[in-house]
Amino acid sequence: MKTIYKNFNLLCIALLSFAVLGCSDFLEEENKSRETDVVASSNPAFFDQLVAEVYNRMRAVTSSYDLEFLGTDIFTRGDIIAGINEINDYVNLRPVNGSVSNQWFVNYRVIAASNAAIDRSNEITGLTDAAKQIGLAEVKFFRAYAYFNLVEHFGGVPLVLNELRTSTVDFTRNTESEVYNQIILDLTDALNGTPDAPSAYGRVSKNAVRHLYSKVLLTRGYKDFGSSQDFTQAASLAETVIAAHPLVNSFSTLVSRQSQRNSEVIFSILYGSNPVSRGVGNSRHLLFKFVYDVYPGQTRSTLYHRGLGPAPTPYFFSLFQENDQREAATIRRLLLAEVNNATAGIAVGDTSIYFPKTAWSASVIQSKPYVVVNPSNYFIPNGFTQVQYPMFKKFDDPGVPYTNPGINPDGERDAIIMRSGETRLLAAEAYLQLNNTAKAAEHLNAIRSRAGLNQPITPAQVTIDLILDESAKELAGEVSRWMDLKRTGRLIERVLAHNPHAALNNAIRPFHLLRPIPQSEIDVTGGILEQNPQYN
Fold first, then answer.
1. Of the residues 26, 242, 272, 343, which has the fewest C-beta atoms closer than 10 A?
2. Of 31, 36, 39, whose CA–CA distance to 15 is shortest?
3. How many contiguous H segments (helices) and E segments (strands) does the chain have?
4. In this protein, which residues make up the domain named RagB/SusD (predicted)?
């Protein structure tokens, strides 16, 4: 735990802007790195700085993608179907895995910053009761968010609820039930303290708390320490959020950069064009894209961008029915040339790469001057790249500079963390668990109708797999697919059925429903922190 909880300098806090273009700052941009505790505690603005640092640290939590997407039914690694991988294929997953350690680290950093804000709020003179109430509610929301991530990935984890001002290594794991109890205590306080309409866009509202609360209770309801009352309360909370956040009429409008702030959005992590407040920038525009720039007519583009590595599975592409508007708004099957290529006979604006939804014949493909990739060839080398597939476009951030791996992505779009499209799916799942399939179908049909699918789902058709398929089409890349599959008890079954790399290795087992505790944390505690079964 020392790697996370060692005494960090609370006064060296990054400033976070709550405006898209950095035009309206939550905090004044002052260098607090040289202020003493005495000076800081006499300045009420210091509390704002502490709260802002929690928001800032949430950026790393919501952009740590590996454990959320890889090793699921709809996302896999962007490699040929061969070899092994710890996270995606569940082969030789070890406590020293970097993605596992990062998941632990970024969430506990949010908890550490939250604890600092909570404990120091009582030491800051001149802080109004109203400001204190809202700030504490916000950081407790984020602490609950972080512990929810940790308990689902690792099981019972140490509950650390106070700022650690000295180096401490004597930590033991609380039970899953105890962690859930603390999450619910924090969410109750957050619901009581947050406003319905925050003072600035991007700050936590009551409906953001209700959305997370609903998801937490829905998840607990499946566990042996949960109950049907969890499903009932989850559905009730979701209904309140849904009433306040109507769906946008068009899915393409919902995912467009120009309309990223709309009635459906409940909570977003903000970035913007101001390089100071943006930090390293949003990276979602890099997700689920292959190395396209080696193709005739292509170059390193400020539209298409180079990908981060994970790829959609063939199963994901197969889910979309005819007339499902989410397909065209989510993925790009056509890439147009951005430079001339005389050798290939391609000029700027011509088709350069095309991915037909159904296979074209060899004769038709040979008649085209551009590259055509049939669905069966996404993970087969074609002379240009090892793998190639329709790119995601729902997170596009046009104009943001092209960046190579290891360079700040500098994305400017908001990262939408919660929206009522997901809330409706949470409600549908809760109602299904309560055997109210009519209400479940109602929520599923709301999102399907918005997508242009006018054939209603009947109550008799509602199953957990149907909900997961709708969630895949609606929320791909937005929420943790791994946590959704784990919650519903479908992780192993659907990974083996639909993830080609994991199916090849056939290594996923029930113990993979928890990740290994990072070895560095166990070592620092001298073995007091116990490892999850079968990872020793």
1. 343
2. 31
3. 22, 9
4. 352-535
Whole-angstrom distance, CA of residue 338 vs CA of residue 335: 9
What is the Cα gyration radius of the chain?
24
Residue from 58, 79, 146 nearest 313 by CA = 79
Burial 14-23 (b: 16+ CB within 10 A, else e): ebbbbbbebe
Diameter of the chain measured on Cα atoms: 78
Q: DSSP string spanning 104-170? A: HHHHHHHHHHHHHHHHHTTT-TT--HHHHHHHHHHHHHHHHHHHHHHHHHHSS-----S---S----
Quick one: which H or E segment has residue 336?
strand 334-336
Measured distance CA(521)–CA(6) in Å, rounded: 12
Asked if residue 425 lies in contact with residue 242, where contact means CB atoms within 8 angstroms, the answer is: no
Query: Do β-strands 351-354 and 371-372 pair in parallel, antiparallel, or remain unpaired?
Result: parallel
Torsion sign over Cα 364, 366, 372, 375: positive
Determine how many CB atoms are found less than 10 A away from the CB of residue 438.
12
For 298, residues 6+ apart whose C-beta sits below 8 A from its C-beta are 292, 304, 335, 337, 338, 339, 352, 353
C-alpha span between 329 and 332 (Å, rounded): 8
Q: What is the pLDDT of residues 268-313, one digit of tens each?
A: 999 999 988 899 999 999 999 999 999 999 999 899 998 777 999 9
- One-letter amino acid of 196: D
pTM: 0.92
Interval 497-518: pLDDT, tens: 999 999 999 999 999 999 999 9
DSSP 414-475: -EEEEEHHHHHHHHHHHHHHTT-HHHHHHHHHHHHHHTT--SPPPGGG--HHHHHHHHHHHH
Handedness of CA 398, 399, 404, 408 (dihedral sign): negative
Residue 369 to residue 371: CA distance in whole angstroms: 7
